[in-house]
Specification:
2 copies of one chain form a homodimer. With 91 residues, chain A is mainly α. Chain A has one domain: Metal-sensitive repressor, helix protomer (Methane Monooxygenase Hydroxylase, Chain G, domain 1, Up-down Bundle). Helix content of chain A is 81%, strand content 0%. Chain A is elongated. Chain A starts with 8 loop residues before the first helix and ends with a helix. Chains A, B: It comes from Sporomusa termitida. Chains A, B: It holds the Pfam family Trns_repr_metal.
Chain lengths: 91, 91
């Protein structure tokens, strides 16, 4: 649990809200039997939006959480958890 | 517009519904100030789920839409649109 404030927290929440809405709209497109390439284009757009959101979270994490971890003497735990997260992200 | 039935249409709709719910849950995690690596892991999981959904759509597209396009003499348009979609997907 990490309750300190992130600069882009509100932006991240807003981006995830847009991704949620976009996914709902694409679900509707599929239910209506819309053309596959159109659906694939929309899924690629959602994936791109997710990647940009992950970048913003990572920016906050490096700018704020790293400083916090170093101050608390927790930089080894910080690096381990960050590495695990990046290993999942970058395949 | 392409209104013919896809074998996995219901599965694709269900997967997108799960991705929508997962995104909503991650949005809540961020709003609660949860640890960045935990959030990044969840975003990576959503991206993986999107990729698997895209693969399922592509499978339907190749199995059903290609046959339909060939029967209708529209295979050139089919290939052009598929190529455009894949170009967006594979960066």
């Amino acid at each position: 649990m990490d309750s300190h404030v992130h600069t882009h927290q509100k932006q991240v929440v807003n981006r995830l809200a847009r991704i949620e809405g976009h996914t709902r709209a694409v679900k509707q497109m599929v239910a209506e039997g819309r053309d596959c390439p159109e659906v694939l284009l929309q899924i690629a757009a959602i994936r791109k939006a997710l990647d940009n959101t992950a970048k913003l979270i990572l920016k906050d994490h490096l700018e704020h959480c790293l400083v916090h971890a170093v101050n608390e003497g927790e930089h080894e735990e910080f690096m381990g958890k960050l590495q695990a997260a990046l290993n999942h992200y970058i395949r």
